[in-house]
Design the sequence.
């Protein structure tokens, strides 16, 4: 399957793929033109939806909550562009950053931005809506096919004294041109798909796959009451009928009110000084977090236009702690919002919810500074120099400075990590992550910080930090299989961390890997079960039978991952009792991919699934649908080429790969695929030329050089092959190949040197050890 999103520049704006994880077939950069349908404009906007009544109706009974909400980020998430909502300066000024330029104009009550459009030509684009308000505001443009696209120029709405009240480009370092998916007119910026569901209420995306157009509507332009509480009609009816006690949850579909009567209390005799929940279990704790999660996480929707109140994993597949988005110790890195870090926290496991710290209507903290933490952490224990060891009145005395490191996104939007972790500069140093100590103490080393913390609070207790296992998995380090397997099965750690460990298990599986996957398949945490099912991809179809037991799991994400794992398993080999459940889960899986029907990668994924079921006609249609949405979409071209070759149409495969090479001249992957095709067709000389070019496009990737060397050796050019292999002296496969080439031509001493170098990389490498032993036996003759 393709990764959730493509490669992208640093400082990724939240209006892009940060809003949404996207599934795709091979990890390649995406590049294609935006195809806008012609015809009359499709005007999207407010439209009634059964069950929704609007925030205005709620306000008639809930005045304090409405007053708090009206100034919130939720209420200002989106608005029609009017003089009262537009914050930017549209007085006619032209702004340039050296790579991009725009002029901001006003015509009465119309606001216009003059900049480069879909074809690259400069044109005037009227603003249809504002997007956000603090600390920046973006502006949307509606196109004739119903797409809304956010312009890349944002208004810094902070006070002038803080550097605000200016226009700036969100990706100033990226010279994006029209046709690139990241250009503001490209598909990776389409509001309807990327952002709409979290910035409006009662949204129906309204995508028509036949015409490739949108008719997107909402019941309320911004994030209103019913975005969190669910459709309010039944609640209004309950109120008008006299608030009868026999109506469940007062007619609301989402139960957010906690009426348990319990409270967080710090026991007088608790030496830790940390509150515990006292009283009956919280009635709505899970519902609160799961209501916030879809919009405060990086996650891929698996159902279309879900309503509030559904279980998070029934509607979304959240991103795990993926490299580049999270540091190995779990700190936020890319724009991943709050849920993924909060899900790692001790707070979450203790039962803390978002509303314990934030007023749910205003979005503001319930108290300022350390007072919000003091609700549960005794100030006499924690808000003292004996704990924080910083001078009173300095930033180091603030709890958030050490326990909630911040990252700035979109140039000006500083957001804090919600894992509430204990600083571990020693671990950060081991995995190459930042730490809160040296982030403030410029010039200090992480060793110094670790020593200082140990002197203050003692040596950290417990076994190896889980970050070490995550880092080992990311780098393919020796022993990663055992470390990750232990982490995956240790229920003392949060589900997102254990699921991440499963996602990093090496292939082919070792015995510890098999034990970890087998144990995790029946874990009580659905996120862990889903990750274990994904890990079955490393096993042959006949070894995936256990997945049939999860086809009827209570959680949708688990069911569709069970169906995915069983895709290559013939129906006749499944237990007969499991076949109806497979049919239902299979339809859920395909439906989850069709949620992103406007995206080419969704159709590539569907093609791959159908091919595993032997449906060649369906797969071919899916590939056509992918290329209809983007004729240069690299995963579609490469995967369809493999499909054509597999059914004996090598010429068609070559045509597709040559199209891919022409469209992606700087990418080594399509050229590499074409070279391998030529090898299989016996055109070795042509393949060698292509492999040489591939290796030069990506000189730091040893697999390209390795394959080039094998092709040279096949032609008898042993010296040339060895010269290519020498470019990567720490690549295990290259060392084994060099040892084998030298052995076969009688240069046993040189063969021994290469084989020993390979064995030194991993003393447990049985193949390398066997090669060393064989070569040394030859030396002894």
Sequence:
């Amino acid at each position: 399957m393709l990764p959730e999103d493509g490669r992208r520049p640093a400082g990724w704006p939240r209006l892009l793929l940060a809003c949404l994880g996207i599934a795709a077939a091979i990890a390649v950069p995406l590049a294609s033109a935006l195809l806008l349908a012609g015809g009359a404009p499709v005007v999207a906007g407010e439209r009634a939806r059964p069950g929704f009544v609007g925030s205005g109706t709620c306000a008639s009974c809930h005045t304090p909550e409405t007053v708090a909400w009206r100034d919130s980020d939720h209420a200002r998430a989106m608005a029609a562009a009017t003089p009262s909502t537009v914050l930017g300066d549209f007085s006619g000024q032209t702004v340039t950053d050296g790579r991009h330029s725009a002029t901001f104009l006003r015509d009465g009550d119309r606001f216009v931005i003059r900049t480069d459009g879909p074809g690259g030509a400069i044109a005037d684009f009227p603003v249809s809506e504002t997007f956000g308000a603090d600390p920046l505001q973006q502006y949307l443009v509606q196109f004739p096919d119903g797409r809304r696209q956010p312009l890349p120029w944002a208004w810094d709405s902070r006070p002038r004294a803080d550097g605000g009240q200016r226009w700036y480009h969100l990706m100033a370092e990226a010279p994006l041109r029209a046709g690139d998916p990241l250009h503001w007119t490209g598909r990776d910026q389409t509001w309807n798909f990327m952002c709409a569901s979290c910035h409006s209420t009662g949204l129906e995306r309204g995508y028509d796959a036949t015409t490739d157009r949108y008719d997107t509507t909402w019941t309320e332009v911004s994030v209103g009451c019913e975005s969190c509480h669910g459709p309010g009609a039944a609640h209004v009816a309950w109120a008008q009928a006299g608030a009868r006690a026999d109506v469940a949850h007062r007619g609301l579909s989402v139960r957010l009110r906690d009426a348990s009567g319990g409270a967080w209390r710090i026991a007088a005799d608790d030496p830790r000084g940390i509150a515990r929940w006292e009283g009956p279990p919280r009635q709505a704790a899970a519902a609160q977090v799961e209501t916030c999660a879809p919009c405060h996480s990086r996650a891929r929707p698996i159902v279309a236009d879900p309503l509030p109140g559904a279980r998070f994993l029934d509607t979304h597949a959240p991103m795990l702690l993926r490299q580049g988005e999270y540091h190995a110790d779990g700190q936020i890195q890319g724009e991943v919002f709050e849920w993924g870090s909060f899900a790692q926290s001790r707070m979450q496991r203790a039962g803390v919810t978002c509303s314990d710290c934030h007023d749910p209507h205003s979005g503001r903290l319930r108290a300022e500074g350390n007072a919000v933490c003091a609700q549960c952490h005794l100030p006499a224990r924690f808000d003292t120099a004996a704990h924080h060891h910083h001078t009173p009145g300095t930033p180091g005395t603030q709890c958030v400075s050490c326990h909630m490191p911040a990252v700035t996104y979109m140039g000006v939007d500083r957001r804090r990590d919600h894992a509430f972790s204990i600083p571990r500069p020693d671990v950060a140093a081991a995995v190459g992550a930042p730490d809160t100590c040296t982030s403030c103490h410029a010039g200090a080393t992480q060793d110094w910080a670790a020593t200082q913390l140990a002197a203050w609070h003692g040596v950290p207790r417990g076994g190896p930090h889980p970050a070490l296992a995550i880092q080992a998995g990311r780098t393919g380090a020796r022993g990663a299989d055992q470390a990750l397997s232990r982490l995956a099965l240790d229920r003392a750690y949060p589900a997102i961390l254990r699921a991440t460990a499963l996602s990093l298990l090496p292939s082919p599986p070792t015995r510890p890997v098999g034990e970890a996957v087998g144990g995790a398949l029946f874990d009580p945490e659905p996120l862990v079960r889903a990750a274990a099912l994904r890990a079955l991809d490393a096993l042959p179809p006949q070894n995936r039978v256990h997945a049939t037991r999860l086809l009827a799991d209570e959680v949708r994400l688990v069911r569709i991952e069970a169906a995915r794992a069983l895709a290559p398993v013939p129906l006749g080999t499944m237990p007969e009792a499991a076949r109806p459940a497979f049919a239902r889960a299979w339809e859920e899986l395909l439906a989850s991919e069709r949620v992103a029907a406007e995206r080419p990668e969704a159709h590539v994924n569907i093609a791959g699934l159908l091919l595993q079921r032997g449906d060649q006609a369906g797969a071919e249609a899916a590939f056509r649908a992918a290329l209809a949405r983007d004729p240069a979409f690299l995963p579609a071209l490469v995967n369809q080429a493999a499909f054509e070759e597999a059914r004996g149409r090598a010429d068609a495969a070559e045509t597709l790969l040559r199209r891919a090479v022409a469209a992606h001249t700087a990418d080594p992957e399509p050229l590499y695929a074409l070279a391998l095709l030529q090898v299989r067709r016996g055109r070795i000389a042509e393949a060698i030329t292509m492999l040489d070019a591939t290796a030069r496009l990506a000189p730091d990737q040893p697999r390209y050089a390795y394959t080039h060397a094998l092709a040279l050796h096949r032609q008898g050019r042993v010296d040339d092959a060895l010269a290519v292999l020498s470019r990567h002296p720490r690549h295990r496969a290259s060392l084994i190949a060099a040892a084998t080439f030298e052995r076969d031509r009688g240069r046993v001493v040189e063969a021994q040197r290469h084989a020993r170098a390979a064995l030194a990389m991993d003393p447990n490498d049985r193949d390398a050890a066997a090669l060393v032993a064989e070569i040394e036996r030859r030396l002894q003759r």
Q: What stands out?
A: Residues 540-594 form one domain.
